[in-house]
Amino acid sequence: MADPGYTSNYSADAPGNATPTHPSYYDYMTAAFLGHCSGLPPPGLDAAAGGEQPLSTLDPDSNQSGTCARLAVEFYNRQEGNSPITLDRAKDSHKFFSQGTAYFHVNFKAAFDGGSGHCYTFFAEVEGPGGVPESATMVVQFHTKEERRTRDNCLYCTGLSHPEEGGFVGHDGGEGGDDDHNNGN
């Protein structure tokens, strides 16, 4: 976040002088920092939930991960043959652009049987031609700990569980890093 009058807030007396001259510069920077931090999750999240914030404490439309997870659950529940799932919590997401379209990879937890059963980890890909999440294109459930481990098979993001078999934008099949979407296939 840049101060519109950034250069006017510094004295030009000597080269390299970085002394603020505007009396409200400190206030501006403090407010900018606090504004950024106000969107961060509060300390003391439930350790039993792996440090994740339960969806009930988040507005799913106010953050990227929650929005992507909600769209993924809706997509999954519309697919023929899938048992309905209920979103428990959004875990993490990553946004990237490929060929001018925004894509989001998200991990979330959901339960079968209306939320009364065991929660499973899912991966979803959501696209948003306008730069915001609009629709899910795939959802994959991880059944085992091995399936949900973090893999280095995505060209665009790290730290998320991705399906080993690919099928998502950015899949790196280990053959030089090409993905089907960037090759026009």
UniProtKB/TrEMBL annotation:
It comes from Setaria italica. Residues 70-160 form the DUF3615 domain. Residues 44-63, 166-185 are annotated as: Disordered. InterPro entries: DUF3615. Residues 54-63 have a biased composition (Polar residues). This is DUF3615 domain-containing protein. Pfam families: DUF3615.
